[in-house]
Amino acid sequence: MKTAETSHPAREGPRLIVYTDGASRGNPGRSGAGVWITDEEGRKIAETGRYLGHRTNNEAEYQALLLGLRESKRFRARTIRILMDSELIVRQVKGLYRVRDLNLRTLYKKVMDDLKEFSSFEIEFIPREQNAEADRLANQAIQRGIEKEKREESRRGTDGRSCHRSIQRDGAGEESPSSTGQGGP
Q: Is residue 179 one of the residues assigned to a domain?
């Protein structure tokens, strides 16, 4: 367990338990982040999920951690305990593993910068079954993202063009709808 000790005597706020999970359907694939935050007694403080687009699973895990840190800051938490089911990310944040992947290195640096804003933190690996709420939120975010993409695709039409009829101008500059929808007579 790693604890970052930084002095912030004026900082007030609760100690939060932050569960985070990143999920990817395919690796890389459509991905989402889920965050479930409780107080020390286990009462829900907040929950959120975010669709991330096309990412690897590890990128999604880091994005979920960043989302959890930002949510914790909104509640002015002074100390946080982060629980996640990605052993790789936990070990990288603890300094036990190096971050070799360039994309992950950028995310890792953002995480480490965000962690400096807390007076202390702990991060630990938990089994997937103990992270069910964050996992649910990440998967719901993916599903919402897929549904939104499908709606946008259906509005564009199957060939990627807009379904709106094109407008033609006659010789006098007047608009008249095209009868073919292709912009020509």
A: no
